Amino acid sequence: MSQSVERALGILPLLAKGPAGLGAVAQELGVHKSTALRLLRTLHEHGFVYRLPDGRYRLGAQLFALAAEAVENLDVREVAHPHLVELNRATGHTVHLALHQDDEVVYIDKVDSRYPVRMYSRIGRPVPLTVAAVAKLLLADLPEPERRALAHRIDYPRYTARSTPDAAAFLRELDLVREQGWATDFGGHEESINCLGAPVHGPDGRVAAALSLSAPGVVVTAEGLLALLPQVLCAADSISREYSGSGSAPVRKDVP
């Protein structure tokens, strides 16, 4: 990288903290004021910084426009897929990624298990809202009025004896998911299938997607799957950091 480009880029993190004058910029870069001024003028011409009436500089609108466009065009599936593959490689179990669309939660990616017993889930198909771990994670992040309205609007099929029976029970479970930051489905949809899920956060801090690790009970018990929760959370946090451009992971409750 050329020295001029490196110095110009060095101005942006400084201005991200707030407006700064020419002297502060020069001091931060370790250059003469004339050099700092030349760099600031170039950035100003391209809209990356803006000169305030008091002579200080702040980040410009063009920088925010480019960032917004980059986020809008970022595909969470593309970002997540290598992490799904790695989680599958490390555990051997089926890994899903899902999104919330209108009143449906839909699988958008899947990495199959390595053992002969396969799950019949399909990319593009909606998941059962009231029992699936990924659905609980995505719906738990809705604002409370939307969450309550949805809970009272949807049906509650009794897939198994462990299925969520009604809106009151569903809302209690969503509250728990919001508090702990992860979700389970231990035989709620299919008696023989256990599932563990974690949220993927977007640039705005909201839950943008959810991933899950699923396995038949004959392969691993619910307790055995729950022991893999740290790996599931780690995968979700890695995707969140890459997708949101953040260097920090969300704060969670202690895992069991």
Describe it:
- The chain has 256 residues and is α+β, with helices and mostly antiparallel strands.
- The chain has two domains: 3-71, Arc Repressor Mutant, subunit A (Orthogonal Bundle); 74-244, GAF domain (Beta-Lactamase).
- The chain is built from ten helices and seven strands.
- The strands form two sheets. The protein has a five-stranded antiparallel β-sheet, with helices on both faces. Strands 1-2 form a two-stranded antiparallel sheet.
- Helix 1 packs across helix 3 (33-45), helix 2 (22-29) crosses helix 3 and helix 5 packs antiparallel against helix 10 (229-244).
- The chain is elongated, with a radius of gyration of 23 Å.
- The protein starts with a helix and ends in a 12-residue tail after the last helix.
Feature tags:
10 helices; Beta-Lactamase; Arc Repressor Mutant, subunit A; alpha+beta; 256 residues; two-stranded antiparallel ribbon
Provide a compact summary of the structure.
The chain is of the alpha+beta class. The chain is 45% helix and 18% strand.
SSE blueprint:
Layout: H1 3-16, H2 22-29, H3 33-45, E1 49-51, E2 57-59, H4 61-72, H5 76-91, E3 94-101, E4 104-111, H6 133-140, H7 144-153, H8 167-180, E5 183-186, E6 193-201, E7 207-216, H9 222-226, H10 229-244
Antiparallel strand pairs: 1-2, 3-4, 3-7, 5-6, 6-7
Helix pairs in contact: 1-3, 2-3, 5-10, 6-8, 7-8
